[in-house]
Amino acid sequence: MSSPGTQVHHLDGIRILDLFAGPGGLDVAAHFLGFKSIGIEWDRNACETRYAAGLPTIHADVTDMRKNRFDEIPESVDVLAGGPPCQSFSVAGTGVGREALETVKAFIRRLVAGEDETKIDTDLRTSGVDPRTALVLEPLRWLLKAIETEGRGPYKVIVLEQVPAVLPLWEVYAELLSGGDGRLGGNKYEADFWELKTEEFGVPQTRKRAVLVARLAGNGSVEELETTHLPFDLHRGKRAAAQADMLPDTNSMPGAKDRWRSMAQALDAVSGLKHSPVDVSRFRSGDRTDFFVVSNYGSGGDPKNRGRRLSSEPAFTVTGKVSRNKVYKSIADYEAGRSDRFTIPEAGVLQTFPHNFPWSGNDQAQQVGNAVPPRLGMHVLSRALRGDSPSKEELSAATTWPTVSRTTTEELRAIGCGDQSRCPAESHKVIRPRREPAP
Fold it and tell me: Which of 201, 288, 370, 432 has a 20 to 30 Å separation from 225 between CA atoms?
């Protein structure tokens, strides 16, 4: 990090520390709720997006920051948030993490009980647990570090999210946080955890997340989030546009929930806005946006059985392979093999990022797919920090990102990377394509 004189105004008043911050899903949510955050992110490309978006960032390894650079975290931070890497837990991954759940549970208990961390680290390395899976222990280790560091103290709020397979680990987290025993030093939390469906919070895609919220005793109880939209039926038989359109967009009954939000609704809402990179006019038939998506993934155990979603329905889970999904305007185009793809800004909108969010660096599709949907993040953070739901005005404002000056981006890059000597090893190495010999 650079000298304090260039940092102070960017790091002033920061409350939220976002571990494994990615391109900024939770940070975007925090911004629209009026909270300042700082993220730790290992991937250089995601850091470039964050700098361009004006999000304070430290380009570093989360473990290294905890062990060797903990004092660089602003003392104003009192909220710990994070979504450890999910590849080894995800149903889209190898499932190694799911098989290791019981092993990881034991390590969580050992950490709190006060066993020597060097011994725990050695046992982790020899246990066969995927190193990415072990990162799910980091939020707990950060909490223990804060409790045991002079001049710091327990975080007032903890917010964690992961794929549903991690729910049993959040259950152990909640049990231990509620007890306050061992290294927790009597610091007890009100804690709860849930499996959430993103479409029930207005995100135009079907995606499930396991979320834990904990509040330090004396800061209020933890109440379950209030859903705003109806769930989407993943398992009904044949789907046609007429069926999807049978339900009105909003229910006329007082207090009733809105229908889930469709791809067409989300994209139409921002397409053609001033300075918007989103333009879905290529999918319009008359005054209607009409297309269907064929998934990059198989279903029912058959890799050739690619699922389909209509534009009048929510998207599939937006993954790092979203650019491989094929988009067709008509059956005739499908039969002729004439497909389109979602652009990065369009994929971002399906994740509920602002339409003009400044995606930067390489591997942008992977950045989009790895992110927490900001709209879901707004609901989670609002409940965790304020005990309420985001207002309609806050949600409405979250469709457009404020302009960030080049000067701000450069200042944030100086904070996050400095002279690059403390960034993850070889993260700034440029790999040039090998030149083919002349014939």
Answer: 370
Residue written as token pair 């400095």: 418
Q: What is the pLDDT of residues 385-394, one digit of tens each?
A: 999 999 999 9
Q: Six-digit token pair at 374? A: 């900001």
Q: Residue 99 above 90 pLDDT?
A: no
Angle at 36 between CA 31 and CA 42, to 5 degrees: 90
Q: Tell me the per-residue pLDDT of 56-80, one tens digit each, with 9 for 90 and over.
A: 999 999 999 999 999 999 999 999 9
pLDDT at 307: 86
The proportion of the chain whose per-residue pLDDT surpasses 70, expressed as a percent, equals: 86
* pLDDT given for residue 249 in this prediction: 54
